[in-house]
Design goal:
With 267 residues, the protein is of the alpha/beta class. The protein is built from nine helices and eight strands.
């Protein structure tokens, strides 16, 4: 088996996780900027985090032979403080040329608040001005549908944004069609306790589409499984999916999307 982990918060994981992923066939990992589990108090905290994502973590991954890529932003959970978000967005351009940076993400909404909307628009503008790919986080809670609609409206109202260059992550049964119909890519996040189980993910693949879609583990500091993607591939196999099609969903699809950034290259 070979696969791409397109959304893993590796700074939270151990070296054992890296070894297990590579052993399972992981060919590259991509790490969006994320909430650390606590709010950072200053722009300097983000500066250090962006250095970690673009310098230290790729070196750690390389020790296990795994190419590591990153996405940069201030996470929606920390977007309530618009002044801080403005400062953080101000330092992102100087990191965009780093060799492992693929785009702006994971931006989006958490509680669908006005300040979050404002910061989302600032990020979309940053991506458009710098011709960057976009990775979007959708709310986990009961507001997912409303949040997804709001996010799609923001993206569609900016004429510089091309939907095929944006992935809307954490889709579920009630949002996947909305995202695909609007021409965006959709990401399914495989969590053991929330979001999407392997069985639900494969149900959605059976029901909707295997085009413009990827799966990720989003493995972070919470309850999550770094091997969720290959385990879901086993569920696909159990249901009789042809090897070729499994390979498309877990390997070739993410490569197709990510290769829109010329810096995404596998050795
Ligand atoms: Zn994430």
């Amino acid at each position: 088996m070979r696969y791409i982990e397109p959304h893993g918060h590796m700074v939270s994981r151990t070296t054992d996780d890296y070894q297990d992923m590579v052993t399972a066939g992981c060919a590259a990992v991509c790490e969006p900027a994320f909430w650390a589990g606590f709010d950072r108090s200053s722009v300097d905290g983000f500066h250090d985090y962006f250095c970690q994502l673009t310098d230290y973590e790729p070196k750690r991954a390389a020790k296990f032979g795994l190419p590591h890529f990153a996405w940069l932003c201030i996470n929606p959970k920390e977007s309530e403080d618009v002044a801080l978000a403005t400062d953080v967005i101000g330092i992102i351009p100087k990191f965009l040329d780093r060799p492992n940076v693929l785009g702006i993400g994971e931006i989006g909404l958490n509680k669908n608040s006005r300040n979050e909307m404002k910061v989302l628009e600032m990020h979309v503008d940053l991506a458009a001005r710098n011709d960057q790919l976009i990775l979007v986080h959708t709310p986990h809670l009961e507001d997912k549908l409303k949040g997804t609609r709001l996010i799609l409206d923001v993206l569609r109202s900016d004429k510089r944004i091309r939907p095929e260059r944006c992935i809307i992550d954490h889709v579920e049964e009630h949002t996947i069609q909305l995202v695909l119909d609007a021409g965006f890519w959709a990401g399914m996040t495989l969590y053991p306790e929330s979001k999407c189980s392997p069985a639900r993910a494969v149900d959605m693949l059976d029901l909707y589409s295997h085009e413009r879609i990827w799966m990720n583990s989003a493995c972070d500091w919470g309850v999550s499984i770094p091997l969720a993607v290959p385990r879901t591939a086993l569920e696909m196999k159990r249901r009789g999916w042809p090897t070729e099609l499994i390979d498309k969903v877990i390997y070739r699809n993410p490569i197709q999307f990510l290769s829109q950034c010329p810096k995404f290259k596998l050795p």
